[in-house]
TrEMBL record:
Domain VWFA: 69-264
InterPro entries for the chain: VWF_A, vWFA_dom_sf
Coiled-coil boundaries: 352-379
Protein name: VWA domain-containing protein
Keywords associated with the record: Coiled coil, Signal
CDD domains assigned to the protein according to its UniProt record, in alphabetical order: vWFA
Length: 412
């Protein structure tokens, strides 16, 4: 019999920061719910290999605005299929933990980055490390990278990937920014040419908190130095069962939230030529992949799409004009959608404002249903406890709840 996993979090001596990172699966038939059933585990068939466009870098932001930066470093060696499945299926749940985050009344800017290590696929160096996504606010780009990621390789250089992430990513210089690395894997932390102690200590000096997630037994992770690494950076040591299937309890609001999430797409106004079109297609593809996992997953994605964390100013005129990133009058007619091309300045503005109002109404309704959904699921979990606390989203959530208070963030 498999021993029960321990899930305590070992916190470092100074402030321990920790927050998110990401997840997924494939549709499974949901058994008829007597009361609140536990649907069959979701298995995801790998989608065909696709060319993934480069995600948009975050636009320059107000230096005084609160910032949350999370770099997720995933072991993609041959035994980590379960970890990748959890990252895909739980991405939107993780993002939604920040949907109502505030500090001093201001919503933080959420930026995510993604590294693969123990990776022998295309684009990897001889050290089997590849930067998949630099810091970005483009959540669809993160989702796309996760779906396209496959296990390969076998050299898990934890110290080296931490060193690369801390040195090469564009970390905020805001002294109050939350700068977090989450590294997940299952081999000894001492592999590779870079001493993990030096890499973690250097990251800590830059204000980056390194949190370690061992995929396996708690004591084995201590033996393999995962706890030691977290302690050096005032971070958290956690362990999960990477092969545990994510159980998604159904809620009566799921179908309507998912439908409204698809309706949101009709309010997006593409500009920027081929690049903008590619981003719009990516949005639709990520909807399809999410719905393919389950209606519950699409509901979680739709809630994320209705939040301030889901912004597409690089290709959507509504977001771009709202955030003063684009002068509507300066956009070439050929870069506008057909209904706007023959309108004068006032007509363009009115047409765009109508789309913004449509979106705001949909977002408000999704948020209302999302709150009802969360209340329902909270009660359902009391009656039908799941083992979600031993999954990637579960352990990240434990740390988020603690660290939000320490960083003077409110989450709800």
């Amino acid at each position: 019999m498999k021993p029960a996993l321990k899930l305590p979090v070992i916190l470092g001596s100074a402030t321990v920061l920790a927050l998110s990172a990401l997840l997924l699966g494939k549709p499974a038939s949901t058994p008829p719910p007597p009361e609140v059933p536990r649907p069959a585990p979701v298995a995801v068939a790998p989608p065909p290999r696709v060319e993934v466009p480069t995600p948009t870098k975050p636009a320059p932001a107000d230096a005084s605005a609160p910032v949350i930066q999370i770099a997720l470093l995933l072991d993609t060696s041959g035994s980590m299929d379960g970890l990748l499945d959890q990252a895909r299926t739980q991405l939107w749940n993780i993002v939604n933990r920040f949907s109502q985050a505030r500090r001093g009344g201001a919503a933080p800017r959420l930026e995510l980055a993604l590294y693969a290590y123990g990776y022998a696929g295309e684009g990897a160096g001889s050290n089997e490390i590849r930067l998949l996504t630099p810091f970005t606010t483009d959540l669809d780009a993160i989702s796309e990278r996760l779906f396209a990621l496959r296990t390969s390789g076998g050299s898990e250089h934890c110290g080296e990937v931490i060193q690369e992430a801390s040195q090469k990513l564009a970390w905020s210089t805001n002294p109050d920014a939350m700068r977090l690395i989450f590294i997940a894997g299952n081999e000894t932390f001492t592999q590779g040419p870079v001493d993990f102690r030096e890499a973690v200590s250097a990251a800590s000096k830059r204000g980056i908190t390194v949190n370690t997630i061992h995929c396996g037994g708690y004591e084995q992770g201590i033996s393999d130095q995962w706890k030691a690494a977290a302690t050096l950076a005032d971070g958290s040591y956690m362990n999960i069962d990477q092969n545990q299937k994510v159980v998604e309890l159904p809620a009566p609001q799921d179908e309507e939230i998912a439908r409204l999430g698809t309706e949101l797409n009709k309010t997006y106004v593409v500009y920027g030529g081929a690049a903008g079109k590619a981003s719009q297609i990516r949005q639709q593809e990520q909807d399809s992949l999410s719905r393919g996992v389950s209606v519950q997953n699409m509901a979680a994605r739709s809630v994320a799409k209705s939040s301030g964390n889901y912004s597409n100013e690089s290709w959507d005129l509504v977001d771009a004009v709202k955030k003063n990133k684009v002068d509507l009058g300066a956009v070439a007619a050929d870069d506008l959608p057909e209904p706007m091309r023959n309108l004068d300045g006032d007509g363009r503005k009115a047409w765009l404002e109508a789309r913004e109002k449509e979106r705001a109404a949909l977002q408000q309704r999704i948020q209302e249903l999302g709150r009802q959904r969360q209340e329902f699921l909270a009660e359902a979990r009391k009656k039908n406890p799941t083992e979600e606390e031993s999954t990637l989203d579960g352990v990240i959530g434990q740390v988020v709840r603690r660290e939000a208070t320490k960083r003077q963030f409110t989450l709800e």
